[in-house]
Amino acid sequence: MTPRDAGEFERALRALETRYWHDHPFHQRLHRGKLDARELRLWAANRWYYQRCLPQKDAAIIANCPLPRVRRTWLERIAYHDGRTAADGGAQRWLQLAEALGMPREEVVDERHLLPGVRFAVDAYVNFARSRPWIEGVASGLTEMFAPGLMRRRVEAMREHYPWIAESGFGYFHNRIEATRGEGRSTLALVLEHCTTRDQQDAALAALAFKCDVLHAVLDAVDYEVGKR
Ligand SMILES: O=C(O)c1cc(C(=O)O)c2c(n1)C(=O)C(=O)c1cc(C(=O)O)[nH]c1-2
């Protein structure tokens, strides 16, 4: 089959937003102020596993990519999450959020609250990046095109409904919203540049759909656990 032109391909990628996790029932309850502190802590402790695996996912993309230009820019993502020192970076900011929710960082870091479904879903994301061509790993990260609106809505809703959360807890999202603006654009540009055959475009679309499934599976597991308690 003939490849889609760039505009058509971009529209097909963006159309997958309907499969994104913004309206997952757990997010809906989070945004409506329906969660109690214990449920928010469980969410933060489990999202931690996603946050901490992201640099390994990004390292796998770099390991599979033969292009120095791409590896050089992608390396920034690892530094973003891991920090330039042990005291900064996205992972540390996530731990500050967990602390603002009342979850001691030791309990997050030792993963005692990590649910099996979350582990399986996040591990599947890392394994996808390890085993698939690098550009498919890149395409799976395109959920970031959809993330800024969701994160803004989340911060607003959390400020409104959970006023007990200290402002220091929101640093993660403020920082991430800024970072995602640039990253989302450059990720899309890479995918448009390197997926030029119909098969490559189909694989990129499948990668993005897979990633939406990973995110849903994470929240399904948290939601199920909350419902049991
Ligand atoms: O809070 C969110 O809703 C959300 C979503 C996503 C996403 O869509 O994958 C990411 C993040 N946050 C995030 O903070 C983050 O660092 C991140 C990295 C990636 C990725 O796939 O490389 N996605 C996301």
From TrEMBL:
| Coiled-coil region list | none
Q: Is Nucleotide-binding one of the keywords UniProt gives this record?
A: no
Domain of life assignment: Bacteria
InterPro entries xref list: Haem_Oase-like_multi-hlx, PqqC, PqqC-like, Thiaminase-2/PQQC
Going by the record, the broad EC class of this enzyme is: oxidoreductase
Keyword Oxidoreductase present in the record's keywords: the answer is: yes
Q: Which SUPFAM superfamilies does the annotation name?
A: Heme oxygenase-like
What catalytic activity does the UniProt entry give for this protein? 6-(2-amino-2-carboxyethyl)-7,8-dioxo-1,2,3,4,7,8-hexahydroquinoline-2,4-dicarboxylate + 3 O2 = pyrroloquinoline quinone + 2 H2O2 + 2 H2O + H(+)
What keywords are annotated for this sequence in UniProt? Oxidoreductase, PQQ biosynthesis
| Pfam hit, one | TENA_THI-4
Residues covered by the Thiaminase-2/PQQC domain: 12-220
Identify the EC number(s).
Answer: 1.3.3.11
Pathway linked to the protein: Cofactor biosynthesis; thiamine diphosphate biosynthesis; Cofactor biosynthesis; pyrroloquinoline quinone biosynthesis
Q: Which family does it belong to?
A: Belongs to the PqqC family.
Which PANTHER family does its entry note?
4-AMINOBENZOATE SYNTHASE, PQQC-LIKE PROTEIN
Q: What does this protein do?
A: Ring cyclization and eight-electron oxidation of 3a-(2-amino-2-carboxyethyl)-4,5-dioxo-4,5,6,7,8,9-hexahydroquinoline-7,9-dicarboxylic-acid to PQQ.
Question: What is the name of the protein in this document?
Answer: Pyrroloquinoline-quinone synthase
